[in-house]
Amino acid sequence: MTSAERPRHVTVAGRRVRHRIDGAGEPVVLLHGIGRSMRDFAEQHELLAERFRVHSVDLPGHGGSLPMVDPCNLPSLARFVGRYLDAVGVHRPAHLVGNSLGGAIAMQLAVTERHRVASLALAGSAGFGREVTLALRLLTVRPLGRLLLLPSRAAVRRTELALFHDPAFATAERIAHALEIARLPYTGRVMIEIARNLGQFQGVRAQWREQLLARMADLDVPTLVVWGERDLILPATHLEAARAALPKARTHLFRDCGHLPQVERADEFHRLLLSFWGVPVPAGGR
User: Fold this and answer.
1) Predicted pLDDT at 286
2) Considering the entire predicted model, what is its pTM?
């Protein structure tokens, strides 16, 4: 582990938050999904830090960040990102890159605090459709949700395998990291709270999705939406819904790729971001 990869902490709204900052230039903020951590953006963090000031952050109640005092819902998570930016001294619009839940949080921040957002890059983002993996739907069922989140290496391995089309990406290191997170005392509670707030057994709730997308459609914010063709968490059919809801957005489908294209197609994802932001891509690819 390099010195840049060692955990750093900052206090946000009175709570300890784990984050990582590297590079110089325009600010970029990387936001992970439910039950995950900033580890899901490690590859992009290192690539982007060559040209940008990159912030990776564990969301409240995820990884090394303590839960919020406020209820853990989409508006409060977006407010957290704004408070985080204030805490680390980012007072100019930032490029937000969000995966899964992180994409919905990024959109929510854009509609509530537009001045903070330079652009949105959404990878397999929540908010575009009802369908979601059975595992997340089951979290909304009492008392089954808590039983499903009892940490075990076998359960964590199944989750990691479900995130990728190529099982080689579900490495022993990733499984060990995910198990460490699953064993934290707040992880399960926060996951269930978010899952029940945003969804039910039938799928992702329509009310918040429809309200968020209606407000997004009225925004003038550059937006890129990408998906993995073999996404088992949020299906790639949601990319068509994104095109319909946000007709001005740029879109891209990664072939033979799962829910984490920023990992499984790291170089291609990086080049796509640079192109979206108008940054020349070197001949060598990076």
Assistant:
1) 57
2) 0.95
